[in-house]
Specification:
The protein is α+β, with helices and mostly antiparallel strands and about 500 residues long. It has helices at about 5-25, 275-280, 325-330, 345-360, 370-385, 385-395, 405-420, 425-445, 445-455, 475-485, 490-495; strands at about 65, 75, 80, 95-110, 125-140, 145-150, 165-170, 175-180, 185-190, 215-225, 230-240, 240-245, 250-255, 260-265, 270, 305. Helix 3 (about 325-330) packs parallel to helix 6.
Protein backbone atom coordinates (compact mmCIF):
# COMPACT_ATOMS: atom_id res chain seq x y z
CA UNK A 1 0.00 0.00 0.00
CA UNK A 2 2.93 2.36 0.05
CA UNK A 3 1.89 3.26 -3.47
CA UNK A 4 -0.35 5.41 -1.30
CA UNK A 5 2.76 7.67 -1.35
CA UNK A 6 1.53 8.82 -4.72
CA UNK A 7 -2.07 8.70 -3.55
CA UNK A 8 -1.19 11.05 -0.73
CA UNK A 9 0.70 13.25 -3.16
CA UNK A 10 -2.58 13.75 -5.00
CA UNK A 11 -4.64 14.01 -1.80
CA UNK A 12 -2.53 16.74 -0.22
CA UNK A 13 -1.69 19.13 -3.03
CA UNK A 14 -4.80 21.28 -2.57
CA UNK A 15 -4.43 21.45 1.21
CA UNK A 16 -0.78 22.43 0.86
CA UNK A 17 -1.63 25.30 -1.45
CA UNK A 18 -3.92 26.67 1.27
CA UNK A 19 -1.21 26.69 3.93
CA UNK A 20 1.70 27.76 1.74
CA UNK A 21 0.69 31.40 1.59
CA UNK A 22 0.55 31.69 5.37
CA UNK A 23 3.83 29.86 5.92
CA UNK A 24 5.73 31.63 3.18
CA UNK A 25 4.64 35.02 4.50
CA UNK A 26 6.49 34.47 7.78
CA UNK A 27 9.94 36.11 7.87
CA UNK A 28 12.96 33.84 8.02
CA UNK A 29 11.04 30.61 7.44
CA UNK A 30 13.44 27.68 7.85
CA UNK A 31 11.04 24.81 8.49
CA UNK A 32 8.24 22.75 7.03
CA UNK A 33 4.65 23.86 6.59
CA UNK A 34 3.44 21.79 9.58
CA UNK A 35 6.28 22.77 11.91
CA UNK A 36 8.08 19.41 11.63
CA UNK A 37 6.93 18.37 15.14
CA UNK A 38 9.05 15.21 15.24
CA UNK A 39 12.19 17.29 14.63
CA UNK A 40 13.41 15.21 11.72
CA UNK A 41 16.72 16.35 10.27
CA UNK A 42 17.21 17.31 6.62
CA UNK A 43 18.34 13.83 5.64
CA UNK A 44 15.05 12.37 6.84
CA UNK A 45 12.89 15.31 5.78
CA UNK A 46 13.59 18.11 3.34
CA UNK A 47 10.62 19.87 1.76
CA UNK A 48 11.00 21.29 -1.74
CA UNK A 49 9.13 23.99 -3.69
CA UNK A 50 8.15 27.25 -2.00
CA UNK A 51 10.01 26.32 1.18
CA UNK A 52 13.20 27.90 2.41
CA UNK A 53 15.78 26.60 2.06
CA UNK A 54 14.78 24.18 -0.69
CA UNK A 55 16.25 20.69 -0.79
CA UNK A 56 19.80 20.20 -1.97
CA UNK A 57 21.55 17.11 -3.30
CA UNK A 58 21.43 14.10 -0.94
CA UNK A 59 18.90 15.80 1.36
CA UNK A 60 15.53 14.28 2.16
CA UNK A 61 16.75 10.83 1.12
CA UNK A 62 15.21 8.89 4.04
CA UNK A 63 15.63 5.15 4.37
CA UNK A 64 14.36 2.09 6.21
CA UNK A 65 12.52 3.42 9.25
CA UNK A 66 10.68 1.99 12.23
CA UNK A 67 9.45 4.87 14.45
CA UNK A 68 8.88 8.62 14.62
CA UNK A 69 12.14 9.12 16.51
CA UNK A 70 14.67 10.84 14.29
CA UNK A 71 17.34 8.27 15.18
CA UNK A 72 15.18 5.26 14.26
CA UNK A 73 16.04 5.23 10.58
CA UNK A 74 18.83 3.83 8.43
CA UNK A 75 19.56 6.79 6.14
CA UNK A 76 20.45 5.47 2.71
CA UNK A 77 24.07 6.24 1.70
CA UNK A 78 24.12 8.98 -0.94
CA UNK A 79 26.89 10.44 -3.12
CA UNK A 80 26.51 13.64 -5.16
CA UNK A 81 27.24 13.22 -8.89
CA UNK A 82 27.47 15.66 -11.80
CA UNK A 83 23.87 16.44 -12.61
CA UNK A 84 22.31 14.97 -15.73
CA UNK A 85 21.91 17.46 -18.57
CA UNK A 86 18.29 17.82 -19.71
CA UNK A 87 17.12 15.04 -17.35
CA UNK A 88 14.38 12.77 -18.61
CA UNK A 89 11.22 13.48 -16.64
CA UNK A 90 9.79 10.74 -14.40
CA UNK A 91 7.39 8.30 -16.05
CA UNK A 92 4.26 6.91 -14.41
CA UNK A 93 2.08 5.90 -17.36
CA UNK A 94 -1.63 5.55 -18.06
CA UNK A 95 -1.55 1.74 -18.15
CA UNK A 96 1.22 -0.27 -16.52
CA UNK A 97 2.13 -3.06 -14.11
CA UNK A 98 4.63 -2.83 -11.25
CA UNK A 99 5.23 -6.38 -10.11
CA UNK A 100 7.79 -5.97 -7.30
CA UNK A 101 7.58 -3.07 -4.90
CA UNK A 102 9.26 -3.28 -1.47
CA UNK A 103 7.69 -0.83 0.91
CA UNK A 104 7.34 0.60 4.38
CA UNK A 105 3.94 2.20 4.75
CA UNK A 106 3.96 5.18 7.10
CA UNK A 107 0.54 6.34 8.19
CA UNK A 108 -1.34 8.05 10.98
CA UNK A 109 -1.92 5.75 13.94
CA UNK A 110 -5.69 5.48 14.33
CA UNK A 111 -5.83 2.29 16.39
CA UNK A 112 -3.41 0.38 18.66
CA UNK A 113 -2.86 -2.36 16.09
CA UNK A 114 -2.20 0.00 13.16
CA UNK A 115 -4.85 -1.66 11.00
CA UNK A 116 -6.35 1.67 10.01
CA UNK A 117 -3.03 3.40 9.33
CA UNK A 118 -3.26 5.59 6.25
CA UNK A 119 -0.81 8.22 4.91
CA UNK A 120 -1.71 11.65 6.23
CA UNK A 121 -1.29 15.13 4.71
CA UNK A 122 0.89 16.45 7.54
CA UNK A 123 3.38 15.05 10.04
CA UNK A 124 1.66 16.11 13.26
CA UNK A 125 0.32 12.63 14.08
CA UNK A 126 1.90 9.62 15.75
CA UNK A 127 2.66 7.23 12.89
CA UNK A 128 2.64 3.50 12.21
CA UNK A 129 5.46 1.84 10.22
CA UNK A 130 4.42 -1.28 8.30
CA UNK A 131 6.74 -3.23 5.96
CA UNK A 132 4.98 -4.87 3.03
CA UNK A 133 5.41 -6.25 -0.47
CA UNK A 134 3.19 -4.78 -3.18
CA UNK A 135 2.10 -5.38 -6.77
CA UNK A 136 0.37 -2.51 -8.57
CA UNK A 137 -1.69 -2.13 -11.73
CA UNK A 138 -2.86 1.22 -13.10
CA UNK A 139 -5.31 1.36 -16.01
CA UNK A 140 -6.48 4.89 -16.80
CA UNK A 141 -7.47 4.40 -20.45
CA UNK A 142 -10.75 2.50 -20.08
CA UNK A 143 -11.32 1.37 -16.49
CA UNK A 144 -9.74 4.51 -14.99
CA UNK A 145 -8.85 2.41 -11.99
CA UNK A 146 -5.91 1.39 -9.88
CA UNK A 147 -5.60 -2.01 -8.19
CA UNK A 148 -2.88 -3.18 -5.86
CA UNK A 149 -2.08 -6.18 -3.68
CA UNK A 150 -0.19 -5.58 -0.45
CA UNK A 151 1.23 -8.47 1.54
CA UNK A 152 2.31 -7.54 5.04
CA UNK A 153 5.01 -10.02 6.03
CA UNK A 154 3.83 -11.05 9.46
CA UNK A 155 1.12 -8.64 10.57
CA UNK A 156 0.69 -5.30 12.25
CA UNK A 157 2.68 -6.49 15.26
CA UNK A 158 5.44 -8.37 13.44
CA UNK A 159 4.16 -11.72 14.71
CA UNK A 160 3.19 -14.87 12.82
CA UNK A 161 0.66 -14.88 10.02
CA UNK A 162 0.29 -12.76 6.89
CA UNK A 163 -2.32 -10.12 6.19
CA UNK A 164 -2.87 -9.62 2.46
CA UNK A 165 -4.90 -6.68 1.19
CA UNK A 166 -6.29 -6.19 -2.30
CA UNK A 167 -7.28 -2.57 -2.91
CA UNK A 168 -9.47 -1.42 -5.78
CA UNK A 169 -9.85 2.31 -6.48
CA UNK A 170 -12.13 3.52 -9.24
CA UNK A 171 -13.70 6.94 -9.36
CA UNK A 172 -14.80 7.97 -5.85
CA UNK A 173 -14.99 4.35 -4.68
CA UNK A 174 -12.37 2.28 -2.88
CA UNK A 175 -12.68 -1.32 -1.78
CA UNK A 176 -10.18 -2.83 0.66
CA UNK A 177 -10.28 -6.62 0.82
CA UNK A 178 -8.24 -8.06 3.69
CA UNK A 179 -7.34 -11.74 3.72
CA UNK A 180 -6.82 -12.43 7.42
CA UNK A 181 -5.45 -15.59 9.04
CA UNK A 182 -7.88 -18.50 9.57
CA UNK A 183 -9.42 -18.01 6.11
CA UNK A 184 -11.30 -14.90 7.20
CA UNK A 185 -12.02 -12.25 4.53
CA UNK A 186 -12.93 -8.70 5.50
CA UNK A 187 -14.10 -6.18 2.89
CA UNK A 188 -14.32 -2.45 3.57
CA UNK A 189 -16.27 -0.23 1.19
CA UNK A 190 -15.22 3.40 1.46
CA UNK A 191 -14.94 6.73 -0.32
CA UNK A 192 -11.48 8.22 0.39
CA UNK A 193 -11.23 11.92 1.09
CA UNK A 194 -8.34 14.32 1.32
CA UNK A 195 -6.59 13.89 4.66
CA UNK A 196 -9.45 11.68 5.85
CA UNK A 197 -11.62 14.78 6.27
CA UNK A 198 -15.22 13.70 5.70
CA UNK A 199 -16.26 17.29 4.95
CA UNK A 200 -14.12 17.33 1.81
CA UNK A 201 -14.94 15.84 -1.61
CA UNK A 202 -13.95 12.30 -2.48
CA UNK A 203 -10.74 11.73 -4.43
CA UNK A 204 -10.16 9.39 -7.33
CA UNK A 205 -7.17 7.16 -8.07
CA UNK A 206 -3.88 8.91 -8.68
CA UNK A 207 -3.54 10.08 -12.28
CA UNK A 208 -0.55 9.35 -14.50
CA UNK A 209 0.39 13.04 -14.72
CA UNK A 210 1.08 13.53 -10.99
CA UNK A 211 4.82 13.33 -11.80
CA UNK A 212 4.55 16.56 -13.82
CA UNK A 213 4.71 18.53 -10.56
CA UNK A 214 8.13 17.16 -9.58
CA UNK A 215 11.19 19.43 -9.65
CA UNK A 216 14.67 18.18 -10.56
CA UNK A 217 17.09 18.33 -7.60
CA UNK A 218 20.34 16.58 -8.61
CA UNK A 219 21.94 13.38 -9.82
CA UNK A 220 23.07 11.06 -7.03
CA UNK A 221 24.40 7.57 -6.45
CA UNK A 222 22.36 5.82 -3.76
CA UNK A 223 22.90 2.46 -2.13
CA UNK A 224 19.27 1.54 -2.81
CA UNK A 225 17.57 -0.71 -0.27
CA UNK A 226 16.21 -4.26 -0.67
CA UNK A 227 19.20 -5.53 -2.60
CA UNK A 228 19.04 -3.08 -5.51
CA UNK A 229 22.45 -1.73 -4.48
CA UNK A 230 24.59 1.17 -5.68
CA UNK A 231 22.69 2.97 -8.44
CA UNK A 232 23.12 6.32 -10.20
CA UNK A 233 19.75 8.07 -10.20
CA UNK A 234 18.10 11.43 -10.85
CA UNK A 235 16.54 12.99 -7.74
CA UNK A 236 13.17 14.78 -8.05
CA UNK A 237 11.02 16.43 -5.37
CA UNK A 238 7.86 18.33 -4.60
CA UNK A 239 7.03 19.38 -1.05
CA UNK A 240 8.12 16.49 1.21
CA UNK A 241 7.79 14.00 -1.68
CA UNK A 242 10.96 12.65 -3.30
CA UNK A 243 11.47 10.30 -6.26
CA UNK A 244 14.63 8.85 -7.85
CA UNK A 245 14.55 7.77 -11.48
CA UNK A 246 16.74 5.90 -13.94
CA UNK A 247 18.42 8.70 -15.96
CA UNK A 248 18.19 6.67 -19.18
CA UNK A 249 14.49 5.77 -19.03
CA UNK A 250 12.81 8.06 -16.49
CA UNK A 251 11.38 5.01 -14.71
CA UNK A 252 10.97 5.46 -10.97
CA UNK A 253 13.26 3.26 -8.85
CA UNK A 254 12.81 4.76 -5.39
CA UNK A 255 10.35 7.04 -3.58
CA UNK A 256 10.40 8.52 -0.08
CA UNK A 257 8.07 10.73 1.92
CA UNK A 258 8.76 10.95 5.68
CA UNK A 259 5.16 10.65 6.80
CA UNK A 260 3.90 8.47 3.90
CA UNK A 261 6.61 5.86 3.36
CA UNK A 262 9.48 4.27 1.50
CA UNK A 263 8.95 2.51 -1.80
CA UNK A 264 11.50 0.62 -3.92
CA UNK A 265 10.48 -0.51 -7.41
CA UNK A 266 12.85 -3.36 -8.20
CA UNK A 267 14.37 -2.57 -11.63
CA UNK A 268 13.00 -4.73 -14.44
CA UNK A 269 9.55 -5.19 -12.86
CA UNK A 270 7.80 -2.17 -14.42
CA UNK A 271 5.82 -3.17 -17.51
CA UNK A 272 4.05 -0.87 -19.95
CA UNK A 273 1.09 -3.25 -20.14
CA UNK A 274 -1.31 -4.88 -17.70
CA UNK A 275 -0.15 -8.35 -16.64
CA UNK A 276 -2.57 -11.29 -16.55
CA UNK A 277 -2.97 -11.17 -12.76
CA UNK A 278 -3.78 -7.50 -12.82
CA UNK A 279 -6.19 -7.86 -15.71
CA UNK A 280 -8.14 -10.49 -13.80
CA UNK A 281 -8.63 -8.06 -10.93
CA UNK A 282 -9.50 -5.13 -13.22
CA UNK A 283 -12.07 -7.29 -15.02
CA UNK A 284 -14.13 -7.21 -11.82
CA UNK A 285 -14.72 -3.50 -12.45
CA UNK A 286 -16.89 -2.12 -15.26
CA UNK A 287 -15.70 0.81 -17.38
CA UNK A 288 -18.72 2.86 -16.29
CA UNK A 289 -17.78 2.44 -12.62
CA UNK A 290 -21.08 0.75 -11.76
CA UNK A 291 -19.80 -2.72 -10.86
CA UNK A 292 -18.25 -3.52 -7.48
CA UNK A 293 -15.67 -6.28 -6.89
CA UNK A 294 -17.10 -9.69 -5.99
CA UNK A 295 -15.77 -9.51 -2.43
CA UNK A 296 -17.89 -6.39 -1.75
CA UNK A 297 -21.15 -8.09 -2.71
CA UNK A 298 -23.35 -10.04 -0.29
CA UNK A 299 -21.75 -13.39 0.62
CA UNK A 300 -18.52 -12.23 -1.05
CA UNK A 301 -16.65 -11.97 2.26
CA UNK A 302 -16.84 -13.29 5.78
CA UNK A 303 -17.39 -9.70 6.93
CA UNK A 304 -18.32 -6.56 5.05
CA UNK A 305 -18.00 -3.08 6.52
CA UNK A 306 -19.97 -0.11 5.18
CA UNK A 307 -21.02 -2.06 2.07
CA UNK A 308 -24.53 -1.87 0.64
CA UNK A 309 -26.19 -4.77 -1.15
CA UNK A 310 -24.86 -3.39 -4.45
CA UNK A 311 -21.28 -3.57 -3.12
CA UNK A 312 -20.79 0.19 -2.91
CA UNK A 313 -20.08 2.33 0.14
CA UNK A 314 -23.07 2.91 2.36
CA UNK A 315 -22.45 4.88 5.53
CA UNK A 316 -25.47 3.35 7.24
CA UNK A 317 -24.67 -0.24 6.25
CA UNK A 318 -25.07 -2.66 9.14
CA UNK A 319 -21.93 -3.91 10.82
CA UNK A 320 -21.40 -6.77 13.22
CA UNK A 321 -21.80 -5.00 16.55
CA UNK A 322 -22.59 -6.28 19.98
CA UNK A 323 -26.32 -6.66 20.54
CA UNK A 324 -28.22 -6.12 23.78
CA UNK A 325 -27.77 -9.78 24.74
CA UNK A 326 -23.99 -9.52 24.21
CA UNK A 327 -23.77 -6.38 26.34
CA UNK A 328 -25.91 -7.92 29.08
CA UNK A 329 -23.65 -10.97 29.21
CA UNK A 330 -20.56 -8.75 29.35
CA UNK A 331 -21.97 -6.88 32.34
CA UNK A 332 -22.74 -10.12 34.18
CA UNK A 333 -19.73 -11.22 36.22
CA UNK A 334 -21.14 -14.59 37.33
CA UNK A 335 -21.55 -17.36 34.71
CA UNK A 336 -24.55 -19.67 34.83
CA UNK A 337 -24.33 -22.97 36.66
CA UNK A 338 -24.15 -24.94 33.40
CA UNK A 339 -20.85 -23.17 32.59
CA UNK A 340 -19.16 -24.04 35.89
CA UNK A 341 -17.15 -26.91 37.35
CA UNK A 342 -16.18 -27.77 40.91
CA UNK A 343 -12.50 -28.05 39.97
CA UNK A 344 -10.13 -26.76 37.31
CA UNK A 345 -10.30 -30.10 35.51
CA UNK A 346 -14.08 -30.33 35.71
CA UNK A 347 -14.46 -26.73 34.56
CA UNK A 348 -12.27 -27.39 31.51
CA UNK A 349 -14.22 -30.52 30.58
CA UNK A 350 -17.55 -28.71 30.97
CA UNK A 351 -16.49 -25.75 28.86
CA UNK A 352 -14.95 -28.01 26.21
CA UNK A 353 -18.37 -29.53 25.67
CA UNK A 354 -19.79 -26.09 24.97
CA UNK A 355 -16.87 -25.19 22.71
CA UNK A 356 -17.43 -28.25 20.52
CA UNK A 357 -21.10 -27.38 20.15
CA UNK A 358 -20.27 -23.81 19.11
CA UNK A 359 -17.14 -24.53 17.04
CA UNK A 360 -17.27 -28.13 15.79
CA UNK A 361 -13.76 -28.10 14.26
CA UNK A 362 -12.09 -27.35 17.61
CA UNK A 363 -9.14 -29.59 18.48
CA UNK A 364 -7.08 -30.54 21.52
CA UNK A 365 -4.79 -27.87 22.90
CA UNK A 366 -1.71 -30.00 22.28
CA UNK A 367 -2.53 -30.12 18.54
CA UNK A 368 -1.47 -26.45 18.25
CA UNK A 369 1.91 -24.77 18.51
CA UNK A 370 2.11 -21.64 20.61
CA UNK A 371 2.73 -19.63 17.41
CA UNK A 372 -0.48 -20.99 15.88
CA UNK A 373 -2.40 -20.07 19.02
CA UNK A 374 -1.01 -16.55 18.92
CA UNK A 375 -2.09 -16.30 15.30
CA UNK A 376 -5.62 -17.32 16.31
CA UNK A 377 -5.60 -14.70 19.04
CA UNK A 378 -4.44 -12.00 16.65
CA UNK A 379 -7.33 -12.78 14.34
CA UNK A 380 -9.78 -12.74 17.24
CA UNK A 381 -8.31 -9.40 18.31
CA UNK A 382 -8.99 -7.98 14.84
CA UNK A 383 -12.60 -9.12 15.03
CA UNK A 384 -13.36 -8.14 18.62
CA UNK A 385 -15.99 -5.54 19.50
CA UNK A 386 -14.56 -2.55 21.43
CA UNK A 387 -17.90 -2.07 23.20
CA UNK A 388 -17.39 -5.31 25.10
CA UNK A 389 -13.81 -4.43 25.98
CA UNK A 390 -14.97 -1.06 27.32
CA UNK A 391 -17.33 -2.80 29.76
CA UNK A 392 -14.56 -5.11 31.01
CA UNK A 393 -12.08 -2.26 31.41
CA UNK A 394 -14.48 -0.04 33.31
CA UNK A 395 -15.17 -2.73 35.91
CA UNK A 396 -11.61 -4.16 35.92
CA UNK A 397 -13.13 -7.49 34.92
CA UNK A 398 -10.77 -10.48 34.51
CA UNK A 399 -12.07 -10.82 30.96
CA UNK A 400 -10.45 -7.54 29.90
CA UNK A 401 -7.42 -7.59 27.62
CA UNK A 402 -4.65 -6.83 30.07
CA UNK A 403 -2.23 -4.87 27.85
CA UNK A 404 -2.19 -2.84 24.70
CA UNK A 405 -1.32 -4.87 21.66
CA UNK A 406 2.23 -3.52 21.34
CA UNK A 407 3.11 -4.49 24.93
CA UNK A 408 1.36 -7.82 24.52
CA UNK A 409 3.23 -8.73 21.34
CA UNK A 410 6.53 -7.83 22.99
CA UNK A 411 5.69 -10.01 25.99
CA UNK A 412 4.68 -12.92 23.73
CA UNK A 413 7.99 -12.81 21.90
CA UNK A 414 9.93 -12.74 25.17
CA UNK A 415 7.94 -15.58 26.74
CA UNK A 416 8.21 -17.65 23.57
CA UNK A 417 11.99 -17.44 23.90
CA UNK A 418 11.95 -18.11 27.64
CA UNK A 419 9.80 -21.26 27.30
CA UNK A 420 11.34 -22.63 24.11
CA UNK A 421 14.03 -24.87 25.64
CA UNK A 422 12.11 -26.40 28.54
CA UNK A 423 9.28 -28.85 27.61
CA UNK A 424 7.42 -28.32 30.88
CA UNK A 425 7.47 -24.54 30.54
CA UNK A 426 6.55 -24.81 26.86
CA UNK A 427 3.46 -26.88 27.75
CA UNK A 428 2.39 -24.38 30.40
CA UNK A 429 2.93 -21.47 28.01
CA UNK A 430 0.92 -23.21 25.27
CA UNK A 431 -1.91 -24.28 27.59
CA UNK A 432 -2.26 -20.72 28.87
CA UNK A 433 -2.75 -19.48 25.31
CA UNK A 434 -5.44 -22.13 24.73
CA UNK A 435 -7.43 -20.76 27.68
CA UNK A 436 -6.93 -17.16 26.64
CA UNK A 437 -7.90 -17.81 23.00
CA UNK A 438 -11.16 -19.41 24.10
CA UNK A 439 -11.88 -16.55 26.52
CA UNK A 440 -11.33 -13.96 23.77
CA UNK A 441 -13.61 -15.88 21.40
CA UNK A 442 -16.42 -16.25 23.94
CA UNK A 443 -16.26 -12.86 25.63
CA UNK A 444 -14.89 -10.41 23.03
CA UNK A 445 -16.71 -11.45 19.85
CA UNK A 446 -20.42 -10.63 19.41
CA UNK A 447 -22.72 -13.53 18.71
CA UNK A 448 -23.18 -12.34 15.10
CA UNK A 449 -19.43 -12.64 14.47
CA UNK A 450 -19.14 -16.02 16.19
CA UNK A 451 -21.97 -17.34 14.03
CA UNK A 452 -20.09 -16.42 10.86
CA UNK A 453 -16.91 -18.14 12.06
CA UNK A 454 -18.59 -21.33 13.26
CA UNK A 455 -17.93 -23.51 10.21
CA UNK A 456 -14.35 -22.41 9.52
CA UNK A 457 -12.69 -21.60 12.82
CA UNK A 458 -10.55 -24.17 14.62
CA UNK A 459 -10.38 -23.25 18.28
CA UNK A 460 -8.19 -25.03 20.83
CA UNK A 461 -9.94 -26.96 23.56
CA UNK A 462 -8.98 -26.20 27.14
CA UNK A 463 -6.23 -28.20 28.79
CA UNK A 464 -7.55 -29.73 32.03
CA UNK A 465 -4.15 -29.76 33.70
CA UNK A 466 -3.43 -26.94 36.14
CA UNK A 467 0.23 -25.87 35.96
CA UNK A 468 2.29 -24.58 38.88
CA UNK A 469 6.05 -24.81 38.36
CA UNK A 470 7.25 -22.36 41.00
CA UNK A 471 8.31 -24.95 43.55
CA UNK A 472 10.64 -26.77 41.14
CA UNK A 473 11.47 -23.81 38.89
CA UNK A 474 11.40 -20.54 40.81
CA UNK A 475 13.21 -18.83 37.92
CA UNK A 476 10.02 -19.25 35.83
CA UNK A 477 7.97 -16.82 37.91
CA UNK A 478 7.25 -14.59 34.90
CA UNK A 479 5.95 -17.49 32.82
CA UNK A 480 3.85 -18.70 35.75
CA UNK A 481 2.37 -15.24 36.26
CA UNK A 482 1.51 -14.95 32.56
CA UNK A 483 -0.10 -18.40 32.67
CA UNK A 484 -2.23 -17.42 35.67
CA UNK A 485 -3.45 -14.33 33.85
CA UNK A 486 -4.50 -16.44 30.88
CA UNK A 487 -6.45 -19.03 32.92
CA UNK A 488 -8.27 -16.39 34.96
CA UNK A 489 -11.57 -17.88 33.75
CA UNK A 490 -11.08 -20.42 36.55
CA UNK A 491 -11.84 -17.67 39.04
CA UNK A 492 -15.45 -17.55 37.83
CA UNK A 493 -16.05 -20.91 36.18
CA UNK A 494 -14.63 -23.03 39.03
CA UNK A 495 -13.73 -22.79 42.69
CA UNK A 496 -10.03 -22.64 41.89
CA UNK A 497 -8.09 -19.46 42.62
CA UNK A 498 -4.64 -18.17 41.61
CA UNK A 499 -1.64 -19.35 43.58
CA UNK A 500 -0.73 -16.94 46.38
CA UNK A 501 2.89 -16.96 45.27
CA UNK A 502 2.15 -15.22 41.99
CA UNK A 503 -0.50 -12.69 42.99
CA UNK A 504 0.76 -9.20 42.06
Amino acid sequence: MQTLWSYNFAFTMSSKVLVLAAVFALPGVNGQFDGNPHHWDRQRRCDHFQYSPVCKACEGVGGKVWSDKNKDIDIVPCKIETSTENPKRPIWGAAFSELASHEILIGKKNDPACFQAFPNNDSTATNCYKPQEVQLWSEMNTKRALVLIANQGGNAWGLVGNVTSTIYHQGPNMWIVNQLPLRVTQTICTEPREGGDQTKPTVGPVQYNWVDKLFFVSTETLDVEYGVGSTKLDHWAFGPHHAWTDPATGLIVRMWQPFNGLQIFTPGNWKSEISAGGQKLLDELASDGKTAPKAALPKGSTFRIKCGDDGFHKSSAAEDKAQISDLKRARSKVPGATYKGNSFQNMSSTLNGWILKQVPKSRKCEDFTVQQLQQIQLTLFMLRDPQLEDIYQQSQDNRRIQRDIAAMSKQWEELNTEAAHDPELARMHRDGHCHEAVMWYVHHLPESVRAKLKDDLELPLLSNFRHNVLESKPHAARLQRAYEEKVSCASCHSFTYPSKEIIV
